[in-house]
Each structure stands twice: as structure tokens, then as C-alpha cells.
Design a protein that fits this description.
single chain; 180 residues; Arc Repressor Mutant, subunit A; ADP-ribosylation fold; 2 domains; three-stranded antiparallel beta sheet; globular; Probable RNA 2'-phosphotransferase
Length: 180
Amino acid sequence: MDEKRTVKVSKYLSKHLRHRPERLGITLDPHGWVEVDELLGACARNGFTITPEELDHVVAVNDKQRFAVDAGRIRANQGHSVTVDLDLPPAAPPSYLYHGTIAQALDSIRSEGLRPMNRHHVHLSPDRATAVRVGARRGVPVVLSVDAGAMHRAGHLFHVSANGVWLTDAVPPAFLRLRE
């Protein structure tokens, strides 16, 4: 499977497993899972055929490990705008986590902090390099350090998804520092 097809399938799956399952005619269970056969059938009925081998490839090689497969079911690891409970237990974060963004967002972030926007959680990276890649998707990246240890001590909950992305409800401005 070539890289262009891999990216196209990954984006298609992300769109429908995270944001628009109804457009495919599938229903995610309360934890975001859907049967693989149901998903592949729905994709084919909607004119975007994905073979089981292609699906396995995308799940295995996706650089962000966006998807999980278990017992014949698949789900997105995080990033949903539809209501799902990923059933992730609270976890103690490392002292610092990172968030990649762009300069145009800084004024809002400085005044309001990080908010989940149209998702359920704010996504934080475990290292600066990952945050740079995340921020670069929308332009020249800016990396913010999040004092996750202090947030945790102040009572903020954190969860870590299967692919290592840290999730929290919001990050108040007091816990943010611009990384130059």
C-alpha cells in the first residue's frame, strides 16, 4: 500500500470514527468501538472500499497510532467530537507535557488557556518533538510547556490514551509557558 493511499484511508477512518459515524451509517458503542466488518461494509456502501489488509496496514503503520483494534472491533484512540467514553483511568502525568499550536492562537490561549474546542479533551504531547509535529499541521509551530505536575497537584485529572497522548479537560493559563 503506497503512502498516499495510507494517508487517505487514515484520514477517512479518523473522520468517521471520531466525528461522523452517522455519515457512514454506523453506530459506535458507548466506548467508541464498532465491528471491523460493519465498518468495512459501510465504507464500501459509501463508495470508499477498504480491504481488511489495508485496514491492518493503516492501524499498524500510522505514525500517531490513531486506532486500536481488539476482538474484531476498531475505534479511534482519542480526538472524538462525538460522545464516547474511552474508559481511560486517571493517570499521574509527568512533570511537564507539551502542546503544539501556531502563533495566531497565542493571544486566545494566553487569556483563556487551552480548551478542548470541538473535542472532549485537550491533547498534550509527552515530548517537545511530538508537539512540534502537531503544531506544524497548521503552520509554523509554537510549543507551549504545560506544568502538568502542578496541575495534577491542584486536582486536575489526566488520562493517557493507548497511543501516548495525554488528555485533560482544560489547561488554565497559569500552567502554560511558551517554549522558545
